[in-house]
Design a protein that fits this description.
Elements lengths: L3 E4 L5 H15 L16 H6 L3 E8 L2 E12 L8 E10 L8 H15 L5 E3 L6 H9 L20
Parallel strand pairs: 4-5
Antiparallel strand pairs: 1-2, 2-3, 3-4
């Protein structure tokens, strides 16, 4: 199967909106704070049209198979770098997993960032999402910081 990685266009929105729901469905078991019902994580149209972000898709004759975005963000003033490339919307259709599509998308996103002199790359992943963590580690990411939470609604705080 021949795979092409290309920039997404607004014409791709219908399938990308389906992919977004796939991301949400995959992440709901890891996060009890996600609202029930229909939600959206991203403004995909904005990510496609903004000069500070780019959405890439993996495509074959079967259609669009995977997606991901990079967004240039101003980072915290006390860090060595002024900007970071933030990656998100990493999704591979269920029937096409294991083909290296995630790596192809990430490699393209990293090249996009590097061409813009952005060398600090970040992403968020749920601690219990072992398959995603392994996929990111496979392309060179390392765990950096853990975000912790506590729901105190039913906690007796005498």
């Amino acid at each position: 199967m021949s795979i092409t990685i290309r920039k997404a266009t607004l014409n791709d929105l219908p399938i990308l909106l389906e992919f977004e729901q796939g991301v949400i469905t995959a992440e709901r078991p890891f996060d009890p704070t996600i609202k029930n019902g229909d939600i959206n994580y991203y403004d995909i149209g904005e990510l496609i049209t903004s000069p500070n972000s780019e959405v890439f898709v993996a495509e074959s004759t079967q259609g669009i198979l995977a997606s991901g975005y990079a967004k240039i963000k101003t980072d915290r003033h006390y860090l060595k770098h002024a900007y970071q490339g933030y990656l998100g919307f990493m999704f591979v259709s269920e029937t096409h997993r294991g083909l290296g599509l995630n790596k192809m998308i990430i490699d393209t996103l990293l090249k996009w960032c590097k061409a813009r002199n952005i060398f600090e790359i970040r992403l968020d992943v749920y601690d219990d999402n072992t398959p995603a963590i392994k996929a990111y580690e496979k392309v060179g990411f390392k765990k950096h910081m853990i975000n912790m939470r506590l729901d105190i609604e039913n906690l007796d705080l005498k």
